[in-house]
Design brief:
heterodimer, A: alpha+beta, 5-stranded mixed sheet, B: Cytochrome C Oxidase, Chain A, two-stranded antiparallel sheet, 17 helices, 1% strand, transmembrane (chain B), transport (chain B), oxidoreductase activity (chain B), cytochrome-c oxidase activity (chain B)
Amino acid sequence: MVMQWIKKTGMFLVLAFASFAVNAEYAWNFPKPVTPMALDTLHVHNKFMLITMILFVVVLAIMIYSIVNHRKSRNYQAATFTGPRTRPQVLWTLVPFAILLYIDFILMGIPAYHSVVMMEDTKNNADMVIKVNGSQWRWSYEYMDGDAQGIKFVSNLTTPQEQITNEAEKGEHYLLEVDNPLVLPVDKKVRILLTASDVIHNWWVPAFGASRDAIPGFLRETWVKVEEEGTYRGQCKELCGKGHGYMPVVVKAVPQEEFDVWVADQKQQMAANTAGADKEWTKDELMALGKDVYTKNCAVCHQVSGAGLPPAFPALTGSKLVAEPNLDSDGKLLKDSHLDRVLNGKGVMPAWKATLSDSDIAAVVTYERNALGNAVGDVLQPAQVKALR
Amino acid sequence: MSYTTTAHHDAHEDHPSGIMRWLTTTNHKDIGTMYLIFALIMFMVGGSMIMLVRAELFQPGMQLVQPEFFNQLIGVHALIMIFMALMPAATGFANWMLPLQIGAPDMALPRLNNWGFWLLPPAAILLTLPYILALFGIGDGAIATGWTFYAPLSVQGGIGVDFAIFAVHLLGISSVMGSINVIVTIFNMRAPGMTLMKMPMFAWGWLITAFLLIATIPVLAGAVTMLLTDRHFGTHFFDAAGGGDPIMFQHLFWFFGHPEVYILLLPVWGFMPQILQTFARKPMYGYKVQVYSLWAIGALSVVVWAHHFFTVGMPVPALLYFMYSTMAISIPLAVLFYCWIATIWRGSMSFETPMLFAVGWIILFGIGGLTGLVLADVAADAQYHHTYFVVAHFHYTLFAGGIMGIMAGVYYWLPKMTGHMYNEKLGKLHFWLTAISFNLTFIPQFFLGLAGMPRRIPDYALQFSEFNMISSIAAFVLGAAQLLFVYNIISCARGGKKATDQVWEGAQGLEWTLPSPPPYHSFTEQPVVK
């Protein structure tokens, strides 16, 4: 009775699944491809899936025929053969393996060869080069050549903590949204150089079909040529610690003209930042900017409250290191001071020198010394940071 | 083959009783029983961990655990299931059945055998102790790098990594000792007349497993030792800043890791044809070619390791080599599938629980194999790699191909081991619940992977919600169904219908010539195989 019920329910579920699969198109497969590589991957994938499904169905049909007919309850008398006996039987036995060899190395092997060559062709006819750096747990981007050369920024997750802890309703792009997306022009072949500053990460956008590890101390490369405008989302794909699920990749593909405008805009902002480093900032200005920088970059480990997550991530609140002075009387950086840690890092703590501007560093150090339960009282000016570079 | 046997039923059975019997035993059946019980316990422990993971993944957002703890659960789940459930279960069968099948009085090296087992409980304690230490504020929990220990994440990790390294050392020593024992037993203790090519297939499967273990476990031990010195003694094997290379760790790890897959599966490929021929009442098809295929797979398995990390970036010739050599494995594997199906073809089949598991195993393991063939393609792998597609794939090979295979073996030999028949109705219910809920757990994960959900993330974007929910519910059913398995085993050990010597109508081989359960010392006079 129970067995019958289970068998029936099982059949129903299998059928229900099968009918789903016919109706929807892309939710059951790769996302819509927007690069030549992703399109090629989709074709290869579909073809291989079809081949393996045919193999599976044929073999399953043979097994089901046997299970239904060759059973003792039907009084089927067992045969006694243990292998092919005559020459035609031997030849007939070899047919499936000939077919399999053909599938493996011709039907699947040849398209697979072309895909590999295409995937690894990163250098030829590249229109621009960008560098992607993975660190725990954010991506940073730098444009290496052309008009955009020198533009660099950090890309942080913007999903509020309340959404993650279920205290607020989740937004449409929950966990797949960032403050500064990577902006790329459409129809341009972009060579992407990857590296990492702490552990191995993997930069992946499913719609691009490109996925490559970012390895600390080594350069790896891949390429994309986005053929459709739009915003594309992906995530880090290599386990990189507790924030692994919280380092999305967001890429905005825009027409060349729009990209040029964006580049000009970024350049202007960079100039303003450099100018900002030279002026005298008030403490309130520094604290306001510092809070912003802290929330985006530091709070993942040291927590919004500054309590940290000891022992891996020490507390900043009441920290001895934070209370010590940063500079000696000549304005030189003291070794193992608070500012030294922020600029140069140590162990798990990343070096922020390369990713944050002078104003950002001055602001966040000032903020950490005068908020989060600390009251050291001093103010660090961007000009002082600039002088240390 | 035909046998003449003289099994004495009145064998002397003086041995210590109580706990000392189990601590000091050198009897292959006692040790086999301990291996199997240990495997069952750890299977439930590792399973409970993944139930918690599936509960957390039931819906988006963080509900039950913190991301750090989530990472610890997934890695320890894998280590337990591989090293402490599947491997000991296979070793348990080897201990119990190899001497019976080849007509030997015991394993060749009984004290080594005892030591091999008693290294396992300390290893299990080492691996899980950091969870308990963390409750007392010591360290930050168990290993959180996944079971693969990838540097530099594992260099950065807490004390859990050190505990896991030593646990792996103990497990490795235990496996190597078990392997030496298997090889020595098979080469020296076969009954007169049993030439290598007359050996039961299970002995062949285990012989090749043993060689693979001896070839690859030392590499793993070396790799984790290098990791240990990187962590504590200032070496830079895996640190680029000191002239090392993080990717070298992956090469060393998977040089062990890929053969490991076959280490888990070869024993199953050994006894599965025996189960099929028993319930098809028809001799095994293609014995010789199966043996050659097992050797071919064993040999190929040590030269394809880099397909586990195509996305780290490799030269094109290396990519092509690892792609085509991986595809080549499909040929001997297809030979095995062909032989298994040809064994049941035109047989006179009946479907007791072991046969249900065996037939279900061919089908589900087939899905694992076919998706593996697709994963070999480098370009498509860039998309599948480290997504739920891979998670689904290797659960089809290791849960369906490994654990469901072991379950077939348990139901097949349980009457022989205990002397009682298990509850057939409950066994069948266990099979159907397991097979259906297993598919409902992992089919959605194929689609999750294709849609772009990475593995090892504690929380996910909203588009993945529905499939995760289906997968979690099915996983809970799958977990609960295993309680039936445990119950059935316990009640069978305690009593039930007496099993005959042959147990199954179509059973062939020396182990079925002995009484059920077999006497404490199996063959007091050597059987002769003609």
